[in-house]
């Protein structure tokens, strides 16, 4: 019987392992971020990411086993996509080697499903619900009817929200990763100082678009002097407010369209304080909002281990022979491994 699951995450620039127990919850997790490695390049360099995963995984496994008393898992859950193909292959190869040595099954996990289920790490069961998956690579609204039963309601037509944050931060010279730096700068700014657009809110539907907002931000930033601290803070706050309001109003629209009263917020941008505050306000409208703690909004292995544990029935027929996919839709075949 599958009780303890080792989760492995290596889809991009975080290397993570976690041990999850179905009876006792998360037993331990370790995570290494490659932020400092990629910062000089202003973004993730895929080859460097893959090589660092190779170096880090054995060390992190030793650290995790020391923290959890050397407990052996009954199965391994590993991110099999979507993500950087080289980085994914490193994690999957590591999982396959461990599984062969321990004679246990490997469960391929969809990275976005991991994010979707991350709020369950807090011991809640939020389904059925509308889910906002919002990160550097994805922005989408999904109707979650149950485990593996997902209906795409809307998605971004161009940039993801997290990507827009990072690009705006880069225009301001804030470095990498830009999103958190821009959010920090926005704390002291006036969100009404710049009249930036709220894309696609003036038309029906649940799709997103952030390219026009990014262009408007660039034009607004041109006259702002690099040494004008207050105007820079105002610009950052105005940009953040535009993104947050867009996400908030689309979530409300999705809830009204589906008639659901529960909202799940997942993905790295879910750690943004302004977004968490805005969406938390839906509670006054009778909406239950479930957001993972900030550490589990960004890429982590705890969500992968949890997803593997919930999908333990897949382990009965699991083999090490499954595809690794750089692109992998959440709906349709996404939950079948």
TrEMBL record:
<keyword id="KW-0963">Cytoplasm</keyword>
<dbReference type="GO" id="GO:0005506">
    <property type="term" value="F:iron ion binding"/>
</dbReference>
<comment type="similarity">
    <text>Belongs to the KAE1 / TsaD family.</text>
</comment>
<feature type="domain" description="Gcp-like">
    <location>
        <begin position="26"/>
        <end position="305"/>
    </location>
</feature>
<keyword id="KW-0479">Metal-binding</keyword>
<dbReference type="InterPro" id="IPR017861">
    <property type="entry name" value="KAE1/TsaD"/>
</dbReference>
<feature type="binding site">
    <location>
        <begin position="133"/>
        <end position="137"/>
    </location>
    <ligand>
        <name>substrate</name>
    </ligand>
</feature>
<dbReference type="GO" id="GO:0005737">
    <property type="term" value="C:cytoplasm"/>
</dbReference>
<feature type="binding site">
    <location>
        <position position="272"/>
    </location>
    <ligand>
        <name>substrate</name>
    </ligand>
</feature>
<feature type="binding site">
    <location>
        <position position="166"/>
    </location>
    <ligand>
        <name>substrate</name>
    </ligand>
</feature>
<feature type="binding site">
    <location>
        <position position="115"/>
    </location>
    <ligand>
        <name>Fe cation</name>
    </ligand>
</feature>
<keyword id="KW-0808">Transferase</keyword>
<feature type="binding site">
    <location>
        <position position="179"/>
    </location>
    <ligand>
        <name>substrate</name>
    </ligand>
</feature>
<feature type="binding site">
    <location>
        <position position="299"/>
    </location>
    <ligand>
        <name>Fe cation</name>
    </ligand>
</feature>
<dbReference type="GO" id="GO:0061711">
    <property type="term" value="F:tRNA N(6)-L-threonylcarbamoyladenine synthase activity"/>
</dbReference>
<comment type="function">
    <text>Required for the formation of a threonylcarbamoyl group on adenosine at position 37 (t(6)A37) in tRNAs that read codons beginning with adenine. Is involved in the transfer of the threonylcarbamoyl moiety of threonylcarbamoyl-AMP (TC-AMP) to the N6 group of A37, together with TsaE and TsaB. TsaD likely plays a direct catalytic role in this reaction.</text>
</comment>
<dbReference type="InterPro" id="IPR022450">
    <property type="entry name" value="TsaD"/>
</dbReference>
<dbReference type="GO" id="GO:0002949">
    <property type="term" value="P:tRNA threonylcarbamoyladenosine modification"/>
</dbReference>
<protein>
    <recommendedName>
        <fullName>tRNA N6-adenosine threonylcarbamoyltransferase</fullName>
        <ecNumber>2.3.1.234</ecNumber>
    </recommendedName>
</protein>
<feature type="binding site">
    <location>
        <position position="111"/>
    </location>
    <ligand>
        <name>Fe cation</name>
    </ligand>
</feature>
<dbReference type="InterPro" id="IPR043129">
    <property type="entry name" value="ATPase_NBD"/>
</dbReference>
<keyword id="KW-0408">Iron</keyword>
<dbReference type="InterPro" id="IPR000905">
    <property type="entry name" value="Gcp-like_dom"/>
</dbReference>
<dbReference type="InterPro" id="IPR017860">
    <property type="entry name" value="Peptidase_M22_CS"/>
</dbReference>
<dbReference type="Pfam" id="PF00814">
    <property type="entry name" value="TsaD"/>
</dbReference>
<keyword id="KW-0012">Acyltransferase</keyword>
<keyword id="KW-0819">tRNA processing</keyword>
